[in-house]
Design a protein that fits this description.
Number of strands: 22
CATH class of the largest domain: Alpha Beta
Oligomer: single chain
CATH superfamily of the largest domain: 2-enoyl-CoA Hydratase, Chain A, domain 1
Number of helices: 26
Shape: globular
CATH architecture of the largest domain: Alpha-Beta Complex
Helix content: 40-55%
Distance between the termini: 58 Å
Number of domains: 4
Length: 757
Amino acid sequence: MLLNFRSLTLPFALFGAASVAWSAAAGQDDPKAFEVPSDLDRWKTEIWGAAMSGDEASMEAYFDAIPPTADADRAESLKAFLEARDSHAAATVEDRAEGRVEAREKIATALEQKNLTDALTAAVELQTLSDDWNAVLDDADIVSLIELANEAEAAARESGDWLFVQEILFRLRTLHDETERLEVHDDLDRRLDEVNRRIGLLARYAPRALHGLRERQFTRLEPDKEFPEFNEAFAEDWKVPLEGISERMVRNAMTIGATQHISNCGWQPLLDGGLEALEIFSSTDQLSENFEGIGDPEKRAAWLAKIRAERLALSEQTPDQVGRRDYHRVLPSLMRLNPETIDVPEEVLLREFAEGATYRIEDVYEDQYTQMIWPEQLRRFEQQVQGDFVGVGILIRHDDKRDLMIQNPLEGSPASRAGIEEEDRVIAVDGVPTTGWSLTRAVDEITGPRGETVVLTVTRDEIEEPVEIPIVRDRIKIRSVNGWFKEGLDPAGDPQWDWFADDENGIGYVRLTSFNDDSFADLLNAVDQMRDERPLNGLVLDLRFNPGGLLDSAIQFSNLFVAEGPIVSCEDRDGETVWSREAKGHMAFLESLPLVVLVNQGSASASEIVSGCLQAHDAAVVIGERTYGKGSVQTVHPVSSNRREPAAFKVTNQYYALPPAGDEKRGRLVHKMPGATDWGVNPDLVVSMTPDQTQEAYELRRKADLIADWDEEWDEADRPNPDRLVTEGIDPQLEAGILLLKARLLPVSSDAEVAIR
């Protein structure tokens, strides 16, 4: 798996660089132009305070003047860690310079091979490794490459090679992200959006046409390999997601969106967005694969004329003139016209209309969280929120031949313990062949009551005959609380963790991947395990790539470290506080524990509530990069009276507000508003990571955590060890956090203690 580095990487800011750089960041000419205290307790308090205030210059001065009263061995250990940090930082600077040279070589090589995709990818890499992203766009080689890409995009569009158009536009837009070329970026974004929507329609309703596009793409990238033929078992899958869709659920959802959305948008954008979606749908030629009417020029023209007339009528009214009555006029008239023109199933029109309405909210108000949850999606949505379900513990997908493939068995799950392996192909469930099964049917057949057995018949490359594997269904827990090093699994399949990133200083480590029902209880259990083993003196809470989860869980986590004051509040569309949650003193079990929180642009929602609250109350030092900016609240509403085919509508209706920090009278909203320049949680200490560091850190952590991958014949030294994240400088954000905690926990020497007494 490759991470989307560019979306997670800001222009590089090097933590641990030379003192001059830190001084400039703090606005001082001389970082040592103030007196560093010789008293160790005061030194530790002030270096921690400097970190909280983002005063990197002062921090460096403190690190250069460790008080002589500190324990000699621990002081030497801290100095060695500092030297390693500086060495890693210098190596990173050198690696970045070498990376820029290599990126230019990749561009040249790719162009020689007429591989535009690789050339653009290398250009993005070059820009990411550069200090001035705008300057890269002025580079003569990049200017020529962009011109070539625009010409290729126009030719691909003319020939209908939409996947190639998508590739080019995506990389061109990435090159213009977070630069001064806003108009160019917005134009690329608009063009890419249109292509994405059409490709999405092909994926949903025209599998043969999409297969043809994928074959063109595959032939372009792998000309010497053969692409699998289209599997006809896939041809009817477009019908499955439509089951249970009714006009009532669409009507109810639109009413909720028009009246309850935080923007107070009303009916006009929803209706126009729905009509626009139907216009795009009916003007996508390849959909005639399953809808013959779209391929009839006269019928399609009559349908499009009606759509465009309705859009024009809406545009001639003011927003407050458009209401529910317009919905009752527009949609029924389209339903009556449909059989006479393009003649597609009503469920298709209803789904596309609703998807278009919510897409308009996303486009205009930058809200991708308001959405329909259709009948076939609802159960998985509920499982995701709850964090557990009954099943066998596998993720499945279709391979290119349309076989059911195990993407991976969850570690410790019934499937994993029974012997299911990654990339197994499931050819039968309880003796019934899976040929032609949709993923929805596969999930329904494999899951079932807890304690009952299901038999999966699988094939795998290294065995000649299929194998029948009986699996007892059980509760599958999505574990969100992870430690430093996974030592093994207990008989129930639960992980056994070493929770300490630093044994000598008693620095614990918790990586939280989501906030679900069990997260808080699991954290308390982890703390108990740490304290049973040794004193817990400090903690790193890693919230990077944590997309969020349950509000109550986020409040519990925050309250654990904050004894009083507001944790989070919510504001309505008028900026009025709707509710506020205060900390409870008896819940702040870890109030005085030195805490570092790691965040990046993958930290969102509940992660931002926790990191922002702890930062506002000076309960932690936040390190990393600015967070994602998802500070909106959604409520989920049932929209169907049909219990057999329930559906829901998720609508944004409030914004989270962080507690006021310092002299602030009002807390910040973390949500990224349209046109905003400030959003998310800004870390106290900005520490960026290069793409290579991000990928290497991810891969090392993934391999270290999947102990099922360890070969029993490996030597202990060959097992993936997360210590390398710090000792080799792979993860400078984590390295910075541990460095700061080492300083905060520096003990006084025994001789000094005697002298004080």
